[in-house]
């Protein structure tokens, strides 16, 4: 444990030295970029550009060295048990240097926020992509020629392809729009509102098409069923009455025939 602590101290000293050098190079680069804006002569501009290139190369070299030192520190920290490891990581500020400095509470909040956002995105994308698939399949109904047998046989496959294509297209579009709006983060309370406002125009367009193509067709079917229901019931009743009367007449005739045959047989035996 003592050897690991001593090695970490040495690594930390080298890291601090590298960070100081990196900071100086960044300051020098800022000055050179400002000089570049003001430089008019071509020779001066070329000179500044060569200096900037040299500093960038030095910066890359320093960052590579930093990465190797940080890897070494992480490997040493992994050799220790959890309580001592956490203490060592906090002391040497490894997470801060790598860019992972956050406590468990903040991490939990971020994860919860991302879960809520994902859930809302998936539900909206599925709902309106499904609507788009229904619209696409209803539009296809008009194009299919029902008189040709080939079209009737291929209709099922056509519907499946068109619906799948529309679903995937709108699902991707909705997810991309929501991701674009929420890329910089959003509060848990405002997630639903922000997600819906991101796809507001798309929702209106789909809902309008759904009303014209799908719902109007379904309503027409319902009305047609209502109109046809009463006369159908009446006709079915009359048909059933006629059917019953014909059956009873036939059965009566058949029974009379059978009875006469039986009586004739009995008489002949006597």
TrEMBL record:
Write the record's keywords in alphabetical order, separated by commas. Coiled coil
| Coiled-coil spans in chain | 1-72
Region Disordered: what ranges? Answer: 243-270
Q: Does the keyword Coiled coil feature in the UniProt annotation?
A: yes
* Ranges of biased composition (kind: Basic and acidic residues): 249-270
Q: What name goes with this protein?
A: Uncharacterized protein
Upper taxonomic lineage: Eukaryota, Amoebozoa, Evosea, Archamoebae, Mastigamoebida
């Amino acid at each position: 444990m003592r050897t690991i602590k001593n090695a970490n101290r040495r690594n930390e000293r080298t890291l601090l030295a590298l960070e100081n050098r990196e900071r100086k190079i960044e300051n020098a680069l800022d000055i050179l970029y400002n000089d570049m804006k003001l430089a008019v002569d071509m020779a001066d501009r070329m000179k500044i550009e060569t200096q900037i290139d040299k500093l960038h190369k030095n910066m890359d070299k320093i960052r590579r060295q930093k990465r190797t030192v940080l890897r070494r520190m992480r490997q040493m920290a992994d050799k220790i048990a959890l309580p001592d490891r956490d203490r060592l990581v906090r002391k040497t500020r490894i997470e801060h240097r790598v860019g992972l400095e956050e406590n468990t509470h903040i991490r939990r909040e971020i994860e919860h926020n991302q879960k809520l956002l994902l859930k809302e995105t998936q539900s909206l994308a599925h709902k309106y992509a499904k609507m788009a698939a229904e619209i696409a399949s209803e539009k296809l109904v008009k194009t299919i020629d029902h008189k040709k047998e080939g079209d009737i046989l291929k209709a099922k496959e056509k519907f499946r392809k068109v619906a799948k294509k529309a679903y995937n297209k709108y699902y991707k579009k909705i997810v991309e729009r929501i991701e674009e709006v929420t890329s910089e983060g959003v509060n848990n309370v405002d997630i639903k509102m922000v997600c819906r406002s991101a796809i507001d125009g798309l929702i209106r367009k789909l809902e309008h098409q759904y009303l014209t193509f799908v719902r109007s067709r379904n309503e027409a079917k319902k009305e047609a069923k209502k109109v046809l229901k009463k006369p159908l019931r009446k006709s079915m009743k009359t048909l059933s009455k006629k059917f019953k009367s014909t059956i009873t007449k036939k059965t009566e005739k058949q029974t009379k025939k059978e009875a006469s045959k039986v009586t004739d047989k009995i008489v002949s035996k006597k």
